[in-house]
């Protein structure tokens, strides 16, 4: 019995599955990179916001009263 006919569809299916997995991996890596970049940007924005809030608290003269409440 000739099994070459059976191997070809199996090989084609395997090749298609490998290509699909490779594409998924590439998309996942791109998504991961994008999310990491956005998280870094968000972290920078939060740090800037915290600094601005602290500056406003100093200007308003309420920083010392908050420190006193915490101790």
TrEMBL record:
Residues 14-59 form a coiled coil. This is Heat shock factor-binding protein 1-like protein 1 isoform X3. Keywords: Coiled coil. InterPro entries: HS1-bd (IPR009643). It comes from Galeopterus variegatus. Belongs to the HSBP1 family. Gene3D superfamilies: 1.20.5.430. Pfam families: HSBP1. It comes from the Eukaryota.
